[in-house]
Amino acid sequence: MPTDVSNPKEYQDIFHWAETQKNGTIPSFAARKNDPYEYMPGLGNSFESEAIPGTVPRGQNSPRCVRFGLYAEQLTASAFVAPRHSNKKAWLYRARPAVAHQGFTDMPDNPDTESNFLPINPRVRISPTQLAWLPFDLPGSRDKVDFVSGLKTIAGAGDPMLREGLATHVYLCNESMEKRALVNSDGDYCIVPQQGALDIQTEFGHLYVQPGEICVIQRGQRFKVKVDGPTRGYILEIWGANFELPELGPLGANGLANARDFLHPTAAYEVTQNDPWEVIYKLGGKFFKSTQQHCPFDVIAWHGNYVPYKYDLTKFVNVGSISVDHIDPSIFCVLTAKSRDPTAPLADVLIFSPRWDVASHTYRPPYYHRNAASELMGLIYGEYGGRSDDFQPGGISYECGMVPHGVAYEEFFEASKADPPAMQISKGSIAFMFESNKPFTITDYAWNSKKKHEHEPKMWDNLVDNFSGHKEEVEKIMASLKSVTINQGK
Ligand SMILES: [Fe+2]
């Protein structure tokens, strides 16, 4: 399909990013044409970036005097002695170190956020019911809500103070954060915009993240979000691990989300004086603030491997069966995070995006299943066929681990009738799933929301028992088996 690469809307209609490159007839490009920033590609690399050339010290990290009298500050995200592949740090060369602030004060609780998902907490509910939410309302034009004030927690597991668990949130806002930065001391945010782009300023530079893209802001990294009008999206927050790419096993070295397609900011600074800012710290799910008289994004140069990043989901290389059957949904994993159970991840981010469906002699819809995993799905744009409820962009569908699900009988019947042709599916659509081996509990905000609805259980009432219609045939088979068994016994 021909695409106008300058129109951001067009990226929602493509089958894959490859289409935007127009068979090599135009210069290749790594970020959408309306993206105002420059990036560095690669995931897990050690990067360096300087807004003023010659500022990053070479051969050492902490010189007696840094160029321009800058302060050197290390942000260490792992244990100092963590193995190399999981050892994460960044050196920041800045106008003032982060410690230059005027102390912390408590902020009032945001009653719509939650961090303790242990069932002993009276503010969370356990439910084996298949739950769903219609799209959450955006703030009205009279309300001014920024990214931090617009956070609402839906479900999660564990507790950040235990350093193991996760939370899922939505954000509903219409104002930019002004003279206000957020730093999550609990864990990493994977942010999934659904409506409206996020223009994110970080200490490492800028990220522009549009629906169809995701970004990861890691624990301890300060950031500020600018929006343009009503803005909605989803967040997966993880505690005690960082996001990484899944192993590829027999797929080899390429496929799914390729490391080279993850984009990192380049250094950009804002140095101010007599400029009142507040830096909001989230710790143990509570919000605190510190004030300072200068901009916190005053990093002129940096190097390290602990850097925020973004990824365009249209670049995901889908794989699947080219003969029969479904491959398990782990093939849709964009990012994963380890738990302390070596056999099960803490969290996976999966996407369901345009792809070919070609398996023959195969029941093509999602088969009836019960999983060890809890599944929380959202829809970024388009339509998603594999869900039985009223699933719309900006809404949510959730099943706790081991809750059975699958399509209604009519769909089963249609899908069982004849072999479908090879076809493109999920066109013009991206759905995602936050998945975990941990059962989630549901927050008061989500439980009491008017948007909540349960799957209509009657939709499975007419799942016909086809087996009983074969009673005589089965009895005949069993009788013949008995005689064989007796004969063999003799
Ligand atoms: Fe499922």
What this model shows, in words?
With 490 residues, this protein is mainly β. The protein has a domain at 319-467: Jelly Rolls, CATH 2.60.120.10. The protein has three helices and 31 strands. It has a ten-stranded antiparallel β-sheet. Strands 17-23-24-29-26-27-7-31 form an eight-stranded antiparallel β-sheet, with no helix packed on it. Strand 8 and strand 9 form a beta hairpin. The chain is globular, with a radius of gyration of 25 Å. The termini are far apart. The model has no long low-confidence stretch (mean pLDDT 94). Fe (ii) ion is lined by residues 369, 371, 375, 405. GO terms for molecular function: homogentisate 1,2-dioxygenase activity; metal ion binding. It is an enzyme of class 1 (oxidoreductase). It comes from Mytilinidion resinicola.
Topology, element by element:
Layout lengths: L38 E3 L5 E4 L20 E6 L12 E6 L9 E3 L17 E2 L5 E3 L17 E9 L4 E10 L6 E5 L3 E8 L2 E5 L2 E5 L3 E5 L5 E4 L4 E9 L3 E2 L17 E4 L11 E7 L2 E7 L6 E6 L4 E4 L20 E6 L6 E8 L2 E3 L16 E8 L14 E4 L9 H9 L5 E3 L4 E7 L4 E3 H4 L4 E3 L16 H19 L1
Parallel strand pairs: 10-19
Antiparallel strand pairs: 1-18, 2-21, 3-4, 4-21, 5-20, 6-30, 7-27, 7-31, 8-9, 8-30, 9-16, 11-14, 11-16, 12-13, 12-15, 14-22, 17-23, 18-22, 19-20, 23-24, 24-29, 25-28, 26-27, 26-29
This protein binds fe (ii) ion (FE2).
Q: Notable features of this structure?
A:
490 residues; mainly beta; Jelly Rolls; 31 strands; globular; binds fe (ii) ion
